[in-house]
């Protein structure tokens, strides 16, 4: 018997395979810690449920006595392996004291399961795939349901859906959030279908501008899916005959009408960083080059207004950003965190 068993996943949503892994973890240890990944994000077709909703689904999927031995904690997608691993260890530390026997329960599904190798000091309890269900099938059936046809869309999956999961899927189908998720889901499917005949999966190159002035940063509200209504850095795809620098200046001007002389922006440039995690964008493989500018604390805030793909452009106080984390598109909050250190790093980093 282990002192603690860990189960790591996104659980978007919880299905029978997850319940089988959780049940095995509960049988192996006195206490079980479930790490709910992709936490604190805006609702998207890939991550439609909050970590609190996923925690409730997990607890409801096991007997009450077992649920008392279960703790669920949220961990962000840092898009940074050492930082993410440190965050998982920090979450486990209060339950895994010195000398504790810790098991990591899971199964190797694909490349996304490589995290199971990142904790060599924990005993890996590797299980075969628990059934043939996966969360993507559930999300596609749920989000792809035609009006009035939710029950028929979910019918083939009913044996694999715990009652609490099914109840949440039905409840959310009556909310505006569901309609918005369906719109994004359809847009993303059409987007990928447009590239289906390419000889190789496309890799997109984008630019983003992080402009800081007087302790504030310039952000937009996205006008179109994906991420319609969410906060983002001004940016977009480079054009065929542009350099990254030229594209960055063009997107900044088009989306915010922030017209600063090129010389002023070049003098304010502090850093350029590449963000290339394979899962950073739901549109596919998107690599962004983020230009970080700082106009200082003496310059006046440039006048801005939304344009092009932005419904709004606004200056926001850096101190407010951590409270807005779940309102950001894709990994843009983490980009801001990279440059502005919005969240404290776990011990050891």
TrEMBL record:
Name this polypeptide is given: Cytidyltransferase
A single MF term (Gene Ontology): nucleotidyltransferase activity
Highest taxon, organism lineage: Bacteria
Source organism of the structure: Melaminivora suipulveris
Keywords linked to the UniProt accession: Nucleotidyltransferase, Transferase
Domain Nudix hydrolase: 190-339
């Amino acid at each position: 018997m282990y002192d603690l068993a860990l189960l790591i996943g996104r659980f978007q949503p919880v299905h029978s395979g997850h319940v089988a892994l959780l049940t095995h973890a509960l049988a192996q240890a006195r206490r079980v810690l479930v790490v709910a990944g992709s936490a604190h994000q805006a609702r998207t077709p890939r991550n439609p449920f909050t970590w609190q909703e996923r925690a409730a689904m997990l607890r409801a999927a096991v007997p009450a006595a077992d649920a008392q031995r279960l703790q669920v904690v949220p961990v962000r997608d840092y898009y940074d392996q050492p930082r993410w691993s440190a965050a998982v260890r920090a979450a486990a530390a209060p339950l895994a004291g010195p000398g504790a026997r810790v098991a990591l329960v899971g199964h190797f599904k694909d490349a996304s399961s490589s995290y199971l190798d990142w904790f060599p000091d924990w005993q890996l309890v590797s299980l075969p795939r628990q059934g043939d269900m996966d969360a993507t099938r559930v999300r596609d059936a749920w989000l792809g349901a035609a009006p009035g046809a939710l029950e028929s869309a979910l019918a083939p999956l009913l044996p694999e859906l715990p009652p609490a999961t099914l109840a949440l899927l039905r409840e959310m189908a009556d909310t505006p959030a569901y309609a918005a998720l369906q719109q994004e889901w359809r847009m993303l499917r059409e987007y990928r279908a447009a590239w289906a005949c390419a000889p190789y999966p496309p890799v997109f190159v984008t630019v983003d501008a992080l402009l800081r002035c007087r302790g504030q940063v310039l952000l937009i509200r996205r006008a179109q899916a994906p991420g319609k209504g969410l906060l983002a850095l001004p940016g977009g795809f480079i054009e065929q005959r542009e350099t990254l620098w030229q594209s960055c200046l063009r997107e900044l001007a088009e989306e915010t009408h922030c017209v600063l002389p090129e010389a002023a922006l070049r003098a304010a440039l502090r850093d350029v960083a590449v963000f290339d995690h394979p899962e950073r964008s739901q549109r596919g493989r998107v690599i962004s080059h983020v230009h970080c500018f700082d106009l200082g604390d003496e310059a006046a805030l440039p006048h801005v207004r939304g344009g092009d793909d932005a419904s709004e452009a606004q200056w926001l106080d850096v101190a407010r950003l951590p409270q807005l984390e779940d309102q950001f598109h894709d990994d843009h909050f983490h980009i801001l965190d990279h440059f502005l250190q919005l969240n404290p790093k776990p011990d050891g980093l």
